[in-house]
Amino acid sequence: MGIGAMTRGAGALVSLALSAGTIAHPAAACPTAEQGFRRLASPEAEIAYRWAPPALKAGQFFTAEVVTCRTRWGEAVHDIKIDAAMPAHGHGMNYRPSAVAIAPGHYRFTGLMLHMPGTWRITIDLLQGGRHTRLTHEVDLSP
Ligand SMILES: [Cu+2]
Q1: Do 52 and 35 meet the contact criterion of CB atoms below 8 Å apart?
Q2: Distance in angstroms (rounded) separating the CA atoms of residues 107 and 117
Q3: Distance 112 CA to ligand 1 centre (A)
Q4: Between vectors from CA 42 to CA 40 and to CA 46, what angle results, nearest 5°?
Q5: Residues 26-56: tens digit of each pLDDT
Q6: What's the gap in Å between 57 CA and the centre of ligand 1?
Q7: Residues 6 or more apart from 17 whose CB is under 8 A from it?
Q8: Cα 95 vs. chain centroid, distance in angstroms?
Q9: Distance from the CA of 65 to the center of ligand 1, in angstroms?
Q10: 62-117 pLDDT tens trace
Q11: To the nearest 10°, the Cα dihedral for 74, 109, 125, 4?
Q12: Ligand 1 centre and the CA of 78: distance in Å?
């Protein structure tokens, strides 16, 4: 889940001026909690994300917006993938989401659905060159 208050001042807008492979102050480009975004971080990378609708429900389609805030290796992210599975049940989603880049480092996924209650593991893979970084996030959906 989010990691505390993410209030930032100026510079909260996604910058369109970042050139490929150059992320000088990536955190400044991260959307804030006021914009409805939460953070997901690992030692390698950090993203900001929000769901629409904000509360996930079993069997309901949702949209995910993801912004890359900090990435590994200093290379541009050229592709991003989102997936979800239930580790306890050994299955994934019944639908394949589609992705669109709406700005550099800013992506929208549609057609996501967690089709049953329980614990889901959502994975987001950032692809940079031939390498990828995975961020995971667990969601518990009540019946
Ligand atoms: Cu299941």
Answers
A1: no
A2: 26
A3: 15
A4: 50
A5: 445 789 999 999 999 998 899 999 999 999 9
A6: 14
A7: none
A8: 18
A9: 24
A10: 999 999 998 887 778 888 999 999 999 999 999 999 999 998 889 999 999 999 99
A11: 80
A12: 31
Whole-number Å distance between alpha carbons of 102 and 108: 7
Among candidates 44, 60, 30, which has minimal Cα distance to 139? 60
Q: 19 in a domain, yes or no?
A: no
Confirm whether 6 is domain-assigned. no
133 contact partners, CB below 8 Å, separation of at least 6: 42, 44, 45, 71, 72, 125, 126
Domain contains 82: yes
How many Å lie between the centroid of ligand 1 and the Cα of residue 26?
36
- Ligand 1: centre distance to CA 4 (Å): 30
Residue 95's domain comprises 26-141
| Domain containing residue 41: CATH number | 2.60.40.1930
Rounded distance from Cα 6 to ligand 1 centre (Å): 33
Of 59, 76, 6, whose CA–CA distance to 35 is shortest?
Answer: 6
Domain count within the chain: 1
